[in-house]
C-alpha cells in the first residue's frame, strides 16, 4: 500500500512569527509520518534579494516535486500581501498537476487585505479559496469571514495547536509579578498603549506591589526604549528586542501574566503559549482571541484603551488569587480545545476529505 504524502509550503521554520511556530509544532506530531510530510520554505527573513532567491528556489523545488515525486496533497500556509501571491502561484502549479490543495489561512488581516485590493486581486483570492479542496480557518469568526469572501469555499476550523506545559509559578512574597509581551514591537500590537498603561499602573500601585514588564520582539525597538526612558520606567520595564525562539519557553515559565493588546490578530501563538504555561492573559477582543480565551480564561480590553488596560493590570498584579485562577482556567482550556494531539487528527481528516 502506497503511503500518502503531503507537501507543505510556508515561511522557513527559522523565521520569526506564529506560522513558523505552528509548523515546527505540527512537524513533531504523528501526522508527519502518517502523511510523509516534506516542507518547502517559500520565504525567509533577510534582505529583499534573499527573499526573492528563496522564493525562486522554492518554485524550482516545488515544481520538481510535482513533476517527479507528486505528493498526494499540498498544504499551503497563507497570509496577506506577499504571502498570498506566493501561495497563489504554488496553488496554480498544484492544480495544473491535479494535486488537491489545502489552503490554511493564518493572516490576521486577510479580510482587510482582500477589501483593500484591486478587483483582479480580489478575483485571485476568491478563485484560490473556491478551488482549494479545503480551506482551514483558525476559528469560527475567521471561517465566517472567509465564507463571506467566497461562499463556495469548503472551510474547516482548526485552532492553532500547542502542547500544555503546566501551571505558572506565582512569585513569592516580595518578588515582582512578571508581565510579558511577545511579538512585534509596533502600534498594531498595542505595545505603546501598554507602555502608557504601565506608567499609570505603577503610579497607582505606588510601591504596594512590585511588578516588572518585559517587551520581547523586533520592530520599533528604539522607539519603545526611548518612550520607556522618557516616562522614567526603566527600573520596571525591559525592552529586550528580538529573542531567540529557544529562549521563549524559559521567559514564559518565569512570568505570570502575558499582555497582547493588539488591534488585529488571527489566533496569536503568543496567547496560546501563555495559556499553555498557565499565565493570566490580557488581550484584545479581535480576530480569534475571544474564542481562544472564552468567558473565563482571560481578560479582554478594547485596543487602544490605555486606561482600562492599566486598571486590569493593577488588578491582576495585586490580586494573587484572580491572577492564578485566570491562568489555571487558561491551562484547562488549552487541554480541552487546543492540544496538538487533537489538531493533528483534525488535519488527518481534512487531508482524507480533500482526496474524495
Automatic annotation (TrEMBL):
Residues 53-160 form the Glycosyltransferase subfamily 4-like N-terminal domain. InterPro entries: Glyco_trans_1, Glyco_trans_4-like_N. Residues 172-330 form the Glycosyl transferase family domain. Keywords: Glycosyltransferase, Transferase. GO terms for molecular function: glycosyltransferase activity. Pfam families: Glyco_trans_4_4, Glycos_transf_1. It comes from the Bacteria. PANTHER family: BLL6306 PROTEIN (PTHR12526:SF631), GLYCOSYLTRANSFERASE (PTHR12526). This is Polysaccharide biosynthesis protein. The lineage of its organism: Bacteria, Bacillati, Actinomycetota, Actinomycetes, Mycobacteriales.
Amino acid at each position: 500500500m502506497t503511503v500518502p504524502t503531503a507537501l507543505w509550503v510556508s515561511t522557513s521554520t527559522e523565521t520569526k512569527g506564529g506560522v513558523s511556530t505552528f509548523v515546527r509544532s505540527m512537524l513533531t506530531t504523528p501526522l508527519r509520518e502518517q502523511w510523509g510530510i516534506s516542507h518547502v520554505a517559500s520565504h525567509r527573513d533577510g534582505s529583499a534579494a534573499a527573499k526573492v532567491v528563496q522564493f525562486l528556489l522554492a518554485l524550482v523545488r516545488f515544481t520538481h516535486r510535482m513533476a517527479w515525486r507528486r505528493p498526494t496533497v499540498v498544504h499551503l500556509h497563507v497570509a496577506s500581501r506577499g504571502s498570498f501571491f506566493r501561495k497563489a502561484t504554488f496553488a496554480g502549479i498544484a492544480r495544473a498537476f491535479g494535486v488537491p490543495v489545502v489552503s490554511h489561512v493564518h493572516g490576521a488581516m486577510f479580510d482587510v487585505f482582500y477589501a483593500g485590493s484591486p478587483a483582479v486581486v480580489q478575483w485571485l483570492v476568491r478563485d484560490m479559496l473556491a478551488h482549494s479542496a479545503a480551506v482551514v480557518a483558525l476559528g469560527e469568526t475567521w471561517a465566517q469571514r472567509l465564507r463571506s469572501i467566497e461562499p463556495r469555499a469548503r472551510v474547516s476550523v482548526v485552532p492553532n495547536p500547542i502542547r500544555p506545559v503546566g501551571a505558572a509559578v506565582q512569585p513569592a512574597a516580595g518578588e515582582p509579578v512578571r508581565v510579558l509581551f511577545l511579538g512585534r514591537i509596533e502600534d498594531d500590537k498595542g505595545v505603546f498603549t501598554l507602555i502608557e498603561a504601565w506608567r499609570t499602573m505603577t503610579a497607582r500601585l505606588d510601591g504596594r506591589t512590585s511588578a516588572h514588564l518585559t517587551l520581547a520582539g523586533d520592530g520599533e525597538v528604539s522607539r519603545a526604549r526611548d518612550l520607556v526612558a522618557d516616562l522614567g520606567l526603566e527600573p520596571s520595564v525591559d525592552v529586550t528586542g528580538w529573542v531567540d525562539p529557544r529562549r521563549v519557553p524559559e521567559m514564559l515559565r518565569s512570568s505570570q501574566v502575558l499582555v497582547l493588546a493588539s488591534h488585529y490578530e488571527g489566533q496569536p501563538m503568543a496567547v496560546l503559549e501563555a495559556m499553555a504555561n498557565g499565565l493570566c492573559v490580557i488581550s484584545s477582543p479581535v480576530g480569534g482571541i475571544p474564542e481562544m480565551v472564552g468567558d473565563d480564561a482571560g481578560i479582554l480590553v478594547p485596543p487602544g484603551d490605555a486606561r482600562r488596560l492599566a486598571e486590569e493590570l493593577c488588578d491582576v498584579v495585586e490580586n494573587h488569587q484572580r491572577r492564578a485562577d485566570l491562568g489555571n482556567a487558561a491551562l484547562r482550556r488549552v487541554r480541552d480545545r487546543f492540544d496538538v494531539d487533537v489538531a493533528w487528527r483534525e488535519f488527518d481528516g481534512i487531508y482524507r476529505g480533500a482526496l474524495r
